[in-house]
Amino acid sequence: MKRLLVICLLFVSLATDCFAQQSAIDTDLLSICYTLWKDSAFGRDPNRTERAAWILPGDLSKKYMVLRWRRSGGRNTEFWHGAIPVHALAQVHTHTVMADPRPASMDIDLSKRIGISVYTVSGSGIWVALPSGQILQVKDSTWYKELN
Fold first, then answer.
1. Contact present, 128 and 20 (Cβ < 8 Å)
2. Half-sphere exposure of 78 (CA within 13 A, CB side)
3. Contact 51, 69 (CB under 8 A)
4. Pairing of β 90-94 and β 117-122
């Protein structure tokens, strides 16, 4: 039993490391991004609120699990209270149309500090801050059309 647990933990650890180093975005993650973006009124919420979630390894029925953040109602920001989920693969959040769509310095610092990718979602595209500090645009302004 201990051996199985060690193998499972090793697999999750390797999956997390692989996810943190990738800059590509698959259809499942794209769908999660769209749901958050839609929930933020497509970045046009009059109160400029954002939406955020942790991306976790999925189970047999889906590739990823999503742990959505409680809405703080903050303007152009969102807050997580509590420990970061142990097996988090990435963090994803929306940016409003009034904000720079690229990862902010806090997003980059978070990615470096916790060692996972941080995605920012907007109508202008999707960007990722990698744990190395590198910022990449992974989707352009037509990203949501891929879901139709």
1. no
2. 22
3. yes
4. parallel
Q: Identity (one letter) of the amino acid at 143?
A: W
**C-alpha 19, offset from chain centre:** 11
pLDDT in tens, 42-97: 988 877 778 999 999 998 888 999 998 776 665 556 666 788 999 999 999 999 99
Structure pTM?
A: 0.81
125: containing domain: 2-147
Number of folded domains that form the chain: 1
Task: Please list, residue by residue across 44-82, b when 16 or more beta carbons sit within 10 angstroms of its beta carbon and e when fewer do.
Answer: ebeebbbbbbbbbeeeeeeebbbeebeeeeeeebbebee
Residue with tokens 């939406």: 51
Q: Which domain CATH number covers 31?
A: 3.40.140
